[in-house]
């Protein structure tokens, strides 16, 4: 493909993204599968352009003054300080390339807006979210948003039912995979470049369940559940089961884990993942009652709630532009319902853990602050104290920044995805 053809492909994909709920990486995968003629370099270049637009969408829109895919691609090229004449050459109406720049586009390329970019453009976030992001980050808003706009590494969780971290580091390095231990999670491995995801999935280590893909912050949240062998655990919004698998490993595959989710498509991924991981104690269900639930009370209830996903904007930058005030309000209502349901399923003496991959207080602290006064039988536990207890028997482990009463992680202060967790005990 010519450079111009790659630009047109990116424009087409961005247009398709406007018509689907699929995240960009899923759409790109399907789009490339239907176009076998595209080589690996073409796919990489097109993907990079699409993600460049999603990461700098606010600037691109502000710079060009429009928001359709073609304008956003032009704006993304300007964000990279590409010269106007070079942009014009890419839009030359050649074979499979985009049509030439219009007079209006040429004028916009040559004439930037007057004055500096507004704050939401500098921070690359939807303007309507500024009050909530300011609540979360205060004076560090732009620094935090810059960290959320970087490319995320690939983090792996070594499945201790199959392997040790030291052995896995040796094994991956023998395959020329540049990797290192995660700074805080005791069973994590980081591939700093974030590249080679497909190749890692093809390794014998992954195929035999020796590791799973899981961000370090998510690994830490699973450890904060303090699930011991023999416990009964409810993963109330299990999704495809990443945390259920981590809990099974922490429990040495002894006890019981019920993974519940209403999304059957995601939940069905758990069964083959559990078989591969050697986790036999996980039962998956989309039903709210039945024999699997036993007496309906569990030692540990994890509510890893659906949320804005704002903590994972490094991995899915398109999500920030799809979030709306109405959708955030829907999520807040669901989060309140889920934590209330989790409370009902927690036995006396048990623990309830509320978690999200969000950095927004309205999805995190506000939910806890509304829940605790109405549920005096629950008491907040210090996340820092729980972390120190859980990791005491492991090799020396550092305490992550943000580990205080709650666990609040951001890419800026931890290098991980943004995450929140609150641990509560039931009297």
Written overview of the protein:
The protein has about 425 residues and is of the alpha/beta class. The chain is built from 22 helices and twelve strands. The chain has three domains: about 120 residues, no CATH class; about 60 residues, Sun protein, domain 3 (Alpha-Beta Plaits), CATH 3.30.70; about 200 residues, Rossmann fold (3-Layer(aba) Sandwich), CATH 3.40.50.150. Strands 5, 6, 7, 8, 9, 10, 11 and 12 form an eight-stranded mixed sheet that branches. A four-stranded antiparallel sheet has the order 2-3-1-4, with helices on one face. Strand 2 and strand 3 form a beta hairpin. Helix 1 packs across helix 3 and helix 14 crosses helix 15.
So how many helices? 22
Second CATH tier, the architecture of the largest domain: 3-Layer(aba) Sandwich
Number of domains: 3
Indicate the CATH topology of the largest domain.
Rossmann fold
Could you name the CATH class of the largest domain?
Alpha Beta
Draw up the topology in text:
Elements: H1 3-17, H2 24-33, H3 40-55, H4 57-64, H5 69-79, H6 84-90, H7 103-110, H8 119-123, H9 130-137, H10 141-148, E1 154-158, H11 165-174, E2 180-181, E3 188-191, H12 197-201, H13 204-207, E4 211-213, H14 216-224, E5 232-235, H15 242-250, E6 256-260, H16 264-267, H17 270-277, E7 282-285, E8 298-304, H18 318-322, H19 325-344, E9 346-356, H20 365-374, E10 378-381, H21 383-391, E11 407-409, H22 411-414, E12 419-426
Parallel strand pairs: 5-6, 5-8, 6-7, 8-9
Antiparallel strand pairs: 1-3, 1-4, 2-3, 9-12, 10-12, 11-12
